[in-house]
Amino acid sequence: MASSETILLFVLLQILGLTQLCVVSAYWLMAPNNILTTQRLDPIVTPGEVSTHVHSVLGGSGFGLNVNTSILQESECTSIPIQEDKSNYWFPQLYFQKNDGSFASVSGNAVIYYLFSDSANVTTPFPNNVSMFITSGDTTLRTLNASSFAQQAVTFLCLQFSGTSNRYNELPVGVSCPAGIRSQINFPSCWDGKNIDSEDHKSHVAFLSTGPDNGTCDDPRYPVTLPRIFMEVYWISQDFEDQRDQALTPSQPFVFANGDPTGYGYHADFVNGWEDGVLQKAISGCNCNPYGDPSCCVDAGIFAFNQTRQCFISNTVDEPVLGNLSTLPGANPVQAPCFESYIATSTPVILAPVYTYVASASIQLPSGTLATSATVTLATQTAVGTCIWKGAGSRSRNVSTCLQIAAALVHLFWYFV
Fold first, then answer.
1. Which Pfam families match (predicted)?
2. Lowest mean pLDDT across 123-127, 352-356, 360-364
3. DSSP H/E element including 351
4. Spatial distance between the Cα atoms of 134 and 196, rounded to a whole number of angstroms
5. CA atoms of 394 and 33, how far apart (whole Å)
6. CA-to-CA distance for 229 and 114, rounded, in angstroms?
7. Which residues contact 340 (CB under 8 A, 6 or more apart)?
8. At 2, phi and psi to the nearest 5?
9. pLDDT tens digits, residue range 205-237?
10. Could you tell me the sign of the dihedral formed by the alpha carbons of 42, 53, 241, 402, in that order?
């Protein structure tokens, strides 16, 4: 059975009244046991290379410079409590930007939802004989197109211990979020049924007919309904509330690893790593709890659920990415309200092999040795610096609908996390 902490989380999320859940008949949710790794890798967008910016990664220990379903299915462990889910999920790391131009990383905890119809033969599992890649969001965006389903898929909650927790299309501006900031993203859930990836990693899939969390897959170009993945990250941004006066932009002091201080460039990625047949069984039979508690699925023998087994891998990219930093990793400039592409002028050391371990992240563990030396590139920059963010006391914001939050349960949730 689920622990008291998990049951508390299920109850809390229901009381929050998440509109994202209202259009499905069945779902389960899971809080990963830990972050697998945080480093500058993105095997979908830049396979075999150092990524332009830092991601925090969840899931199977097979993650690395290159991944596919076969590699992930052979993972030694997973940071997902469902032990048969060795998929990888990743999102950009969040930082606090100080007024001297330096940065401090913000800790976060994720919750992942799988949402699907409880009618037979409506939802199709991700194919296991090929490697399904899905990306949501656009790292280059710095403005809002409110009519775009892709941008509607990204929202943020400013969490309060009392009163209302407002939902925004961008990182909340000019408000205090004493219980933290929650980033939220829906993945496309309509597939063309043929391509497992596309040049932009998006064109082989689409959002539902009336929005990222509403409608059906009635477009004949995307007729196959996949499970809808919805991912939340609870950023412990409240740790920096008393430091706002030391921020470059006190009204909104946070920036994502891709140099985005707006939140419009928030994104996430998924590579399927489910063990063969398990996701199909889950879609067919894991509709037994109206609150998303997967305990009944475990009792039915659909999958195993372990909330204590942590899974970590050693770094491939040898550079500091957490704590206090003089620049964003990769020297990403903070840019808004526009974006220009910058070419990295150096590449850090690549380490190998990658070690997998099931232990506490605080324990000193082995790391790989030098596999590829650091390099310096004589790159010709085409960017001219027009979009460099100089900081500001405030920016306009787009406020979406409000969600009611239960004060006591929010307090208890953060206590147990």
1. DUF1996 (PF09362)
2. 360-364
3. strand 349-352
4. 8
5. 36
6. 5
7. 382, 383, 384, 385, 386, 387
8. -70, 150
9. 999 999 999 999 999 999 999 999 999 999 999
10. negative
- Whether the CB-CB separation of 258 and 52 falls below 8 Å is answered with yes
412 φ, ψ (degrees, to nearest 5): -65, -40
The pLDDT of residue 372: 75
Specify whether the CB–CB gap between 99 and 391 falls below 8 A: yes
Give tens-digit pLDDT for 117-156.
988 889 999 987 667 788 899 999 999 999 999 999 999 9
Give DSSP secondary structure letters for 303-331.
--B-SS---EE--SEES--SSEESS-TT-
Question: Among all chains, which residue has been given the structure tokens 């929005």?
Answer: 211
Q: What is the DSSP string of 34-59?
A: S--EEES--TTTSTTS--SS-EEEEE
Q: How far apart are CA 254 and CA 158, in angstroms?
A: 13
pLDDT at 167 > cutoff 80? yes
Query: Which residue type occupies 413?
Result: F
For the ranges 65-69, 93-97, 207-211, 369-373, which has the lowest average pLDDT? 369-373
| Domain boundaries, position 214 | 4-416
What pTM value is reported for the model?
0.87
Could you give the 3-state DSSP secondary structure of residue 357? Answer: strand
**Domains identified in the chain, total number:** 1
- Whether the CB-CB separation of 89 and 112 falls below 8 Å is answered with yes
Nearest to 130 by CA among 191, 81, 59: 191
